[in-house]
Amino acid sequence: MEPPVTEKNFVTVQSTLPSLPYPLVSDRRHIKSGRLLIREHRASDLEALYELRRQPEVMAYTHKGVVDLDRAETQAWLVKKLAPQGNENFDFVIADADTDVLVGTGGCHLRAGKVGWPELGYMLRKEAQGKGYATEFVNAFLEAYWALPRMQTDVAVDVETIDRHENMGGAKECIVAITQARNKASHNVLRKTGWKLVKAFEEPDRFPKNDGDMVTLYVWTLTKSSKAATDCARKV
Question: What's the predicted TM-score (pTM) here?
């Protein structure tokens, strides 16, 4: 069921977040799943990333919304994933486990996203879509993400991302995903991996056909306990 579109409404709660600093890019352990190797970004990934970010089908649902114009634009994006800037987030390359060929990127790209919580995002080459890679990546990444050390902190978050019965002094930590309302493929991935659709809000369309055009965005949340419950159900 689709939630009604509402305005953002922030409250400050006490919760936990991954401790800072994150593991340095140079020290991050590879995450391995059945078909995927989830590893750090490298300067040598430029050409493969340029090919990825030149695919309109891939970029349509990203914050940027359009393909990179040239390699210089991709290089500027890649620099933010390499040390030292890359140390500030928990982002990875998604590669084929056997060949190390890049098939996408993903991870926690914002520590404080559109609704306050850390945000998960990913993108896969069009040739890799529809094969279960996204689900495999999300499950493998989340296992590593929830294993990070935690710190107690105050967090300003949208009120619809916390349990109504929770005390403001102790809200369960969430990670969120933001999707466009029309991105049905990502909705399926998030549902299969245990996420809950909690909010819809609107932003000005980056590419409006008419003045005042808006785009509807969905907010999905996941807590460590809900992820564990999904994993248990999958094993039964």
Answer: 0.92
Residues 6+ apart with CB under 8 A from 111: 17, 88, 89, 118
The one-letter code for the residue type at 65 is G
The C-alpha angle 97, 150, 86, rounded to 5 degrees, equals 50
CA distance 122 to 177: 10
Encoded tokens for 208: 């409006």
Distance CA(34)–CA(46), nearest Å, equals 25
Q: Which residue has the tokens 């914050």?
A: 63
What tens digit of pLDDT does each residue of 132-191 get? 999 999 999 999 999 999 999 999 999 999 987 765 668 999 999 999 999 999 999 999
Digit-coded pLDDT (tens) for 105-127: 999 999 999 999 999 999 999 99
CB 92 within 8 A of CB 44: no
Cα gap 165→11, rounded to integer Å = 14
Which amino acid belongs to residue 223? T
